[in-house]
Amino acid sequence: MFDNLSLFIDGEWIKEGRRTEDLIDPATEAVLGQVPHATAEDLDRAAKAAHRAFLTWKNVSALERARIISGAAALMRARLDAIAWNLTLESGKPIREARTEVMFAADILDWYAEEGKRAYGRQIPSRLPGAMQVVLKEPVGPCASFAAWNVPATTPCRKIGGALAAGCTLVLKPSEETPATALAIAKAFEDAGLPAGVLNIVFGVPAEISSQLIATAEIRKVSFTGSTEVGKHLARLAADRVLRITLELGGHAPVIVAEDADVEKAAKSVATNKYRNAGQICISPSRFFVHDRVHDSFVRHFTEISAALQVKPGIDEDSDIGALANKRRLDAMEAFVEDATSKGATIECGGRRLGNLGFFFPPTVLSDVPDTASAMTEEIFGPVVPIQRFDTLDGVIEKANALPYGLAAYAYTSSQKTAAEISSRIETGMLGINHTVVFTPETPFGGVKESGYGSEGGIEGLEAYLTPKLVSQLAW
Ligand code: NAD
């Protein structure tokens, strides 16, 4: 796959004669392959192909669409080892995680395939005697979708699954840092019988691609996963054409460990999710607030778990934490630690880059981190864990809500009253109480405040690609 990185436009795999950029293996910093950049003509052709394909795909029955989408999911499972291997090489994440991710991405496709059969409209009694009034759910149209590098199978499948099941077509720009996984997904769709033009894949300079595609007349919806800053920029571009947009942006998930929590269980539970993909997950538990009475015990348990994790190249079967995806994350982790310690935080474990080849950074637990530290206010997106003490529920809820983010939040408590209080007062799109599994195919995945709007899972994820049309008819 790395020798053959291509664009996929109107059913054609294209790479010759295009400018390219190096694809880097984050574990070795070696060049894996060359990522071709789409020209302005390629983008125009992709948008036109998506438009032409839309005119037929929207009329393909939901059953037939489901057959093709599930067919692609089955092929992804059949090709699991090869896809996961490439995913690990290009993203750095451990191979065990890569396999789990590919299987999860296939599950997302299956779920959307089924849900597409249930894109029901409704009938509304009319005020006009004899009139029949129905609401049809129609696909929005061709979409321009932009995915980040951190979950290179999951994010594209959320966007592809929702769009295709609803009857939309798309031009997808996956990250240039993880192209092979998206191309393997596209290949599975091609082999499952997806008509040419329904799914197109392009790479290039992100800002150039988004500004051209979003301004193209054929595009009717935008979907983006990435940072809040870029999300705001795309929202402005989409506003110029009054396009629908789904934004899945950054987060800085608070974790509240209450005084009545089972501290040992809480530490285990939250560590599993915190270190998934070395913390480079938008819903990663990210700012830890631990009640004064259980603080020391929690820090001890959590540090023990963190320090025992194996930081190794992702292709090692026993790797728990692979290389960070790119040099930007490594630099960011160093800056978070330096800033926090200069403001009085204590390093409980980790704290420095491992080796000087590959982007390896160990689990790093910081205690007594002050509010002014950047780790408490900026999205971390890595294996650094800032921990603070708290003494009142009111105070900690206020802190949890103080940032502009509102994607995920977690709480550990054995009190029903505390759980209810946190549920009703935390400003978040997803809340896990006593566990962290808030990302299944059937549940809405999305944020509030500057973490974005719209959902990429559950029935809401399908709705995002549908638009209501009222038809009111008098029989003459
Ligand atoms: P970034 O926002 O620059 O890039 C994220 C993705 O957006 C990349 O795949 C990039 O190719 C794409 N992108 C960037 N500019 C674009 C544009 N103008 N038009 C279209 N696509 C564009 O961020 P990054 O440096 O890769 O990561 C930095 C931060 O982004 C992280 O710290 C994290 O906060 C956030 N991030 C969030 C998610 C998420 O799942 N919500 C994923 C990746 C990164």
Low-confidence stretches: none
Shape: globular
Q: Tell me the CATH superfamily of the largest domain.
A: Aldehyde Dehydrogenase, Chain A, domain 1
Task: Tell me what portion of residues adopts beta-strand conformation.
Answer: 15-25%
Rg on CA atoms, Å: 23 Å
Quaternary structure of the protein: single chain
Task: Tell me the domain tally.
Answer: 2
Strand order of the largest sheet: 14-15-16-13-12-17-18
Ligands present: nicotinamide-adenine-dinucleotide
Strands, count: 20
Calculate the terminal CA-CA distance, rounded to whole Å.
61 Å
CATH topology of the largest domain: Aldehyde Dehydrogenase, Chain A, domain 1
Q: Helix segment count?
A: 15
Structural class determined from secondary elements:
alpha/beta
Helix content: 25-40%
Q: Give the mean pLDDT.
A: 98
Text of the CATH class of the largest domain: Alpha Beta
What does this structure look like?
The protein is of the alpha/beta class and 476 residues long. Helices cover 39% and strands 20% of the residues. It has helices spanning 40-57, 62-78, 80-91, 95-115, 154-166, 179-191, 206-215, 228-240, 263-274, 295-307, 327-342, 374-377, 393-400, 416-425, 458-463, and strands spanning 7-9, 12-14, 20-24, 31-36, 122-123, 131-139, 143-146, 170-173, 199-201, 221-225, 244-248, 253-257, 285-291, 346-349, 364-367, 384-390, 408-412, 430-433, 452-453, 466-474. α2 (62-78) runs antiparallel to α5, α3 crosses α4 and α9 packs across α10 (295-307). The longest helix is centred in the first third of the chain and has 21 residues, at 95-115. It is globular and about 75 Å long. It binds nicotinamide-adenine-dinucleotide. The site of nicotinamide-adenine-dinucleotide has 21 residues, from α7 and α8. One of its GO terms (biological process) is gamma-aminobutyric acid catabolic process. Belongs to the aldehyde dehydrogenase family. It comes from Oceaniradius stylonematis.
